Amino acid sequence: MEFIIQNLEELPEVAKEIKKQLVHKIITFEGEMGAGKTTFIKELVKSFGTNDEVSSPTFSIVNEYDTDEGKVFHFDFYRLNHEDEALDFGIEDYIYSNQFCLMEWSNKIANFIPDEHHTISIKNVDGIRYLNFE
Ligand SMILES: Nc1ncnc2c1ncn2[C@@H]1O[C@H](COP(=O)(O)OP(=O)(O)OP(=O)(O)O)[C@@H](O)[C@H]1O
Ligand SMILES: [Mg+2]
Fold first, then answer.
1. DSSP secondary structure string, 57-80?
2. Helix 37-48 vs helix 11-21: crossing angle, to nearest 10
3. Does the Cβ of 12 fall within 6 Å of ligand 1?
4. Which CATH number goes with the domain that contains 73?
5. Which of 19, 23, 32, 73 has the smallest CB count inside 10 Å?
6. Which 3 state secondary structure label does DSSP give 50?
7. Environment class of residue 114 by beta-carbon count within 10 Å: exposed (0-12), middle (13-18) or buried (19+)?
8. What's the rounded Cα separation, in Å, for the pair 34 and 47?
9. Distance from the alpha carbon of residue 17 to the mean position of ligand 1, in angstroms
10. Residue ranges of the chain whose pLDDT lies below 50
11. How far apart are CA 97 and CA 95, in angstroms?
12. Which of 4, 5, 39, 43 to mutate to test the pocket of ligand 1 (most atoms within 8 A of CB)?
């Protein structure tokens, strides 16, 4: 499913539509630096219903939010050097927690991603975002 997003105002509607389509709780996000992964995750978590502030977990690797859909874990693996580091902080416990796991730069931990997951890839072409949901 592809969405074409012209500006930030269009994001909430796309997030709501994707929320309706979710059947898995593991969602990986693909796209270059600055593509809009964190921005979209903010909107998706908002659509789950939350008062928590959603921000990039670049330095902490994982943020946790309380939402009406339960706990949501938001990862950014960009700074991870090796998959072993993910094991050290308990990546498997998160993945099998049956809570939402939203993952930026999950290619760094590719071996831990179960088959049953969604992928959202975002491409920025001259300020227009092409978002693909699988
Ligand atoms: N749909 C959009 N329309 C307009 N601007 C956007 C959109 N999505 C993101 N942006 C802008 O692009 C910039 C980068 O977005 P964001 O931080 O979400 O990227 P990212 O993919 O998470 O990057 P990184 O790989 O560094 O984590 C921000 O300034 C944000 O406001
Ligand atoms: Mg980001």
1. -TTTSEEEEEETTEEEEEEE-TT-
2. 70
3. no
4. 3.40.50.300
5. 23
6. coil
7. exposed
8. 22
9. 19
10. none
11. 6
12. 39
**57 Cβ closer than 6 Å to some ligand 1 atom:** no
CA distance 112 to 42: 24
114 lines ligand 1 (CB under 6 A): no
- What is the sign, positive or negative, of the torsion defined by CA atoms of 62, 66, 71, 72? negative
Q: Which pair of structure tokens corresponds to residue 114?
A: 């179960």
* Closest to 12 measured CA to CA, from 40, 35, 33, 32: 40
- For residue 37, the model assigns a pLDDT of 98
Number of domains within the chain = 1
Tell me, what's the pLDDT at 98?
96
Does the Cβ of 15 fall within 6 Å of ligand 1? no
| Domain range enclosing 92 | 2-133
The two structure tokens encoding residue 82: 């090796």
Note the pLDDT of residue 24: 98
